[in-house]
Amino acid sequence: MKIDIISGFLGAGKTTLIKKLIKEALFNEKVAIIENEYGEIGIDGDILREESIQVKEITSGCICCSISGSFESAIEEIVDKYNPMRIIIEPSGVAKLSQIIATLKKHRDRGKINSIITVIDVKQFEVYMTNFGEFYIDQIRNAKTVVLSRTQDVDNKHILQVLKGIKKVNPGCSVIITPWDKLSGENILEVLEDRRESSLKEIQFIKKPLNNAYARAQIRSEGLVAKDVFETWGQETPEIFDKENLKGILKKLGLGEYGYVLRAKGIVRSSENKWIAFDYVPGEVEVRNISPDYNGRICVIGKDLRVDKLQKLFSSEE
């Protein structure tokens, strides 16, 4: 059995990448997913279930922190109950990749780690390196392949700067810089499994030194775990949202009055008697239609969150 780890910081695009791989490359395989949401409200598991894939959710914390026992039992349950050909593990966006790998090594008898991937949003790279160096650097350093997301939204100079930062931390990793819509899922899988013969083989390491800002970015306290740095607020909601109004609400999250919001996502009912999913990362808002669900859910992750204001923002009282 193959085990693939698809990690990445909050909102980088992990779930989108998994959906692409399943739809375009893994459709003939029996695949199970362990989906770890940071916080009590699960969102991405429902989105993945739209692809008819078995999903095991863990929502009580980070895989790599206080719930490693739950993580290990989830692996055992999936193997015993479904006997999949492949397990994809999607850790929460604030998980330490090194600790996930260490946990999986205890289960060598159940499956082989096939690929270790970190998804990086090129638009947020410098901000997250500066503010959350320990978690971010750990995810880069321990990846075999780094997949850049949203490269279509920036110029080559920006991509080059991000690439230099990645290679400074992890010179040996492969890096995919091509926009995802230009690559098939099979193309990407070949890189992840080191099967490719094309020009995707290896992006040349650029030896020019990094700006000192990156060196200063790393948080010094090696004992930190996600719960010491990040806060989460989530709730189930029967509220009905208009798409355009919801976009306006999400844009307000970047104003600072609700705390430093790193990520927001949810599934809610719309005023057109449909269901919509939303995603927010700083500077970017996405709202899209999805299949009906049993109840609305909202999850916000960040620092110094103003819970009272968030509750009001997402309620009809606002």
TrEMBL record:
Molecular functions (GO terms): hydrolase activity; nucleotide binding
SMART domains, A to Z: CobW_C
Spans traversing the lipid bilayer: none
GO CC list: cytoplasm
Record domain CobW C-terminal: where: 230-318
Keywords: Chaperone, Hydrolase, Nucleotide-binding
InterPro entries referenced in this protein's UniProt entry, alphabetically: CobW-likC_sf, CobW-like_C, CobW/HypB/UreG_nucleotide-bd, P-loop_NTPase, Zinc-reg_GTPase_activator
Catalysed reaction, written as an equation: GTP + H2O = GDP + phosphate + H(+)
Keyword set includes tRNA processing: no
Similarity annotation: Belongs to the SIMIBI class G3E GTPase family. ZNG1 subfamily.
Designated name of the protein: GTP-binding protein
Source organism of this protein record: Clostridium paridis
